[in-house]
From TrEMBL:
Matches recorded under InterPro entries: DUF624
Pfam annotation, one family: DUF624
Keywords: Membrane, Transmembrane, Transmembrane helix
Transmembrane segments: 23-47, 53-72, 102-124, 130-156, 168-192, 198-215
Leader peptide range in chain numbering: none
Lineage, highest ranks first: Bacteria, Bacillati, Actinomycetota, Actinomycetes, Micrococcales
Protein name: DUF624 domain-containing protein
Stretches of the chain forming a coiled coil according to its record: none
Keyword Transmembrane: yes
Amino acid sequence: MSEQTQQRPGPWSGLFGRITRNVYWVVVTEIAFVLASLPGIAGLVLLEPHPSNIPLFALSLVPVGPAFAAAITTFRARQRDDDLVVWPRFWRSWWRDLRDVLFVWVPVLAVLTVLGMNIAFGQAVGAGGIFAGISIVLSVVVSVIAVNALVVVALFGFRTRDVWRLSIYYLGAKPLVALSIVSGLVLVAALAWFTTPWILVVIGSLLAAAALANARKMVADIEERFTSGDGADASKPA
């Protein structure tokens, strides 16, 4: 085989090839994300949008956490590898991290459920607007910690309590990351409010990619300070 033949660009090379690969990666990840979240999506379809259903909405969101974490892991693999093995990566990550993610995600939903009930029914039980305002602020803080925790649990093999410690620590250690998450939450809430909540399902994988991109400084700092080369608490394989 001649040197010219060996250097001939493949069908996926060039700008068009890179764009095609990225689009393929996003589309396949999004399909997998929707399928993994399908039990919860079915519940959301059947529920009436009423404050009394907040606990049921939270229960329906349980499958979304593992799906979101698997999407983060899949996009992390895209940063390291240039192949098109997307589907098996997603489901391998989903199954591997299912238990760890639920240990993080379910308590988050429980806390947000309580805060949501406080916001919805605080006036009815005689609590003032200050009580509702505090609940809103706490909901935002918990949501930021939850995003950090999903990124950490998706990419690293830490114990659950260490995941929480790191997620809370980086709330202050990397305030720009936290501020970006808050900004993203506001934009996502506005997008859902002015269009339809179902848009969040359509762009779920893109939100995971955005969370990963936003957390790159936090991830780099964790890799530098809290992982070791002997396999203990090291980054998970893609």
